[in-house]
Amino acid sequence: MQVSVETTSVLERQMTITVPAERIESDVNKRVQQAARTQRLDGFRPGKVPMKVAKQRFGAGIRQDVISEVLQQSFYEAVQQEKITPAGGPQIEFKNDKDGEDFQFVATFEVYPEVTLADFSAVEIDKQSSEVKDADLEQMIDTLRKQQANWTEVEHASVDGDRLKIDFEGFIDGEAFEGGKAEGMDLVLGSNSMIPGFEDALVGAKAGDEVEVKATFPEDYHAENLKGKEASFNVKVLTVSTPELPELNEEFFGKFGIEAADLESFKVEVRSNMEREMKNALKMKLKDQVFTQLVDLNGIEVPSALVDSEIDNLRKQAVQRFGGGAEIDPNMLPKEMFEDQAKRRVTVGLLVQEVIKANEIKADDARVRSTIEEMASTYQEPQEVIDWYYSNDEMLNQVKSLVLEDLVIEHLLASAKVSDSVVAYEDAIKPAQQ
Q: Does residue 54 sit in the same domain as residue 88?
C-alpha cells in the first residue's frame, strides 16, 4: 500500500492511498469461491456452481463490498502509519477502482490543531464572593408569594404590581414592525419584562383605556434592527387585576416541595437553596472568566467537523429545552444561531484537554465521589442517587469530566493574578455576560 499526504490548509490534509490490485482480486476471488459453494442457482446442484458462472452472477456486488471494506481498512492503516489523528470522518474521492488495476482514492479530512499553551501567569481574574443577607431572604419569600398570588379583577386605576391584560401594536417611524404586536398578553407592572418606559406609561390606566406609549429600545437589544430605535405603541387595556398574596402556612410551603411546620423552618430551607444557587452561579462565572481568558490567550484554529458536530448537539438541546418532540427536526434551526457558541465550546474543549495532558491532571476517585454526594444531597433519597450514578457509566463519566474541568480551573487560577471582590446577592446570581 502506498500513501502520500498533502497539507492543503492549517488543519486540512489530503491523503492519497493506493492499494495493490492483488489485494482486491484476492479478496474478491475468495468470496466468489465461497459464493459458488454456498449460493443456490437454478440449474446447478448445491456447491457445484462453476467459478465463471458465480463470478458473472455475484462478482460485481462482491467487488463493491470488498472495495468498501478495503477503503475503510486501508484508511485506518494509513493514518496509523503516518501518525495522523483525524478530527472527523474523511471525504472520499475515487481515483481508480477499475477491475484488475490498483485501487486508488483520495481522503480529505481535518486534523487536530497543535497547541502550545501560553503562559497564564499574567492573566487577571476577579474572584467574586457573596452572602445571602436577611433582606435577600425576605425579598425571595416575597417573590415566592407573588408567584402564588391569586388575581382579582378591579375597576380602579392600576398601580405598580398589578397585572394588566393588554392588546398592543408597535410602530417605528409610522411603520409597524415584526414582533411588535400582541393580543391578550398578561403584563405585571414593575416586572421589567418590557423595554424601559413601557410599563411606567401604563401605571394609572384602567380597564378599557387606550394608551399611547412611547419607549426606546436599548442599545443592547437582541434584535439588531431595533437597537436604539424609538417606538410608539398603541395599547388597549382589557383588564386590571390586583394580587392577593397567600398566607405563609404549611399549604404554601408545600407548594415548593418543602416540608416545614413553621415560617422559620421554611426560611432555613429557602436560604439553603439560595446559597446553593449563589454558589453555583459564582462558580459558573469564575469558570467562564477563566475559559474566556484561556481562549483569548491561545488563538487556535478549530476543525470545522468538530464545530459542525457541536452545532448538531446545540440544536438538539434547543429543541429539548423548548419542549419540542420527535415532530421537530433540529436541523430546521439555522446553523448560524449556534456557530459562535459551538466554536467557543470546541476551542475550550481542545484547550482544556491540552492543559490536562500537559499537567497530567487526573480526576481522583475521592473527588468524584464527593462531587456526586454533593449533587445527591438535594434529593430526598441521596443514597439512591449515588448508587444510580455508580451504576451508570455514562453519567459517571460526565461527573468525571466535570471534576477534571474543576481541576483545570484550579490549576489555572494557581498561576494567575487573582483578586477577590464581594458582590451583592442579586449581582452574584446574574449570569455571566457573554
A: yes
